[in-house]
Amino acid sequence: MAGNFLETKFGEMYYELETRSENRKEQLAIFIHGSNKQTQKINFWSPIRSIIQSQVNAVVIDLIGHGRSKGTDIEMSFTDHVTSVKLLINHFTKKMEIRDLILIGRSYGGAIVQQLAIDIEDIASIGLIAPAGVEKYANQIKTKKISILWDVNDPIIPFKQIENYLNTNNEIKLYTLGKPNLNVNNLFYIGSDNNPSHEPELQSPELFTRFLKSLIE
């Protein structure tokens, strides 16, 4: 992916853009990582970047304060992060002819995506990976097409929070590591012999591929 910087009032946000998916030129997926400054940055996606590149035009970012983004000494609030990603979205909607904007966030990035889905009406679909903030945002989401990827034994963010989404009218597709004790439609799960994980996309590339395809088809 080609790397570049976007100037914002908080500093320069580093992003990488990949536009190899010739049959989906009008789709763009933006990937947002979690909050840990040591591990959560663009490189987190490296083990599954080939899957991302094969499926959709994609932008992966370093949130301000992470990775190669400039302004790493700035203490960014949640609202600041949401605002900075809005600036990135505006940048690409002006630069590219985007018909379907797809937002994908993991953990803290999932909370950012949910807030964006409340603030922005024309998002085609959102993907949430072990997301934070579900209990706060689920009933406010305007985007109807939602896919969620989670380990049922997640040690960081309890899977039981998924119930907040199952009680909404949104079109939910659920992908899990381990079989959940739920009676829901649109469920795909893979049995897991691994230790409980907060990183289901890395634990099962197959499950992540199915999750991603559900957002772009």
Helix/strand layout:
Blueprint: E1 2-8, E2 11-18, E3 27-32, H1 49-55, E4 58-62, H2 78-95, E5 100-106, H3 108-119, E6 125-129, H4 134-137, E7 145-151, H5 163-166, E8 171-177, E9 187-190, H6 200-203, H7 205-216
Parallel strand pairs: 3-4, 3-5, 5-6, 6-7, 7-8, 8-9
Antiparallel strand pairs: 1-2, 2-4
Helix pairs in contact: 2-3
Q: What count of structural domains?
A: 1
What sequence of helices (H) and strands (E) makes up the elements? EEEHEHEHEHEHEEHH
The CATH class designation is Alpha Beta
CATH second-level architecture: 3-Layer(aba) Sandwich
Q: Describe the main β-sheet briefly.
A: 9 strands, mixed
Name the CATH superfamily classification.
Alpha/Beta hydrolase fold, catalytic domain
- Cα(first) to Cα(last) distance is 23 Å
* Shape by Cα distribution: globular
- Low-pLDDT residue spans: none
Tell me the β content: 25-35%
Instruction: Note the total helix count.
Output: 7
Number of strands: 9
| Average pLDDT over all residues | 91
The strand line-up of the biggest sheet is: 1-2-4-3-5-6-7-8-9
Keywords:
217 residues, alpha/beta, Rossmann fold, nine-stranded mixed sheet
Structure in words:
By secondary structure, the chain is an alpha/beta fold. It has one domain: Alpha/Beta hydrolase fold, catalytic domain (Rossmann fold, 3-Layer(aba) Sandwich), CATH 3.40.50.1820. Helix content is 28%, strand content 26%. It has helices at residues 49-55, 78-95, 108-119, 134-137, 163-166, 200-203, 205-216; strands at residues 2-8, 11-18, 27-32, 58-62, 100-106, 125-129, 145-151, 171-177, 187-190. Strands 1-2-4-3-5-6-7-8-9 form a nine-stranded mixed sheet, sandwiched between helices. Strand 3, helix 1 and strand 4 (58-62) form a beta-alpha-beta unit. Helix 2 crosses helix 3 (108-119). The longest helix is centred in the middle third of the chain and has 18 residues, at 78-95. It is globular. The two termini are 23 Å apart. 43% of the residues are buried. The model has no long low-confidence stretch (mean pLDDT 91).
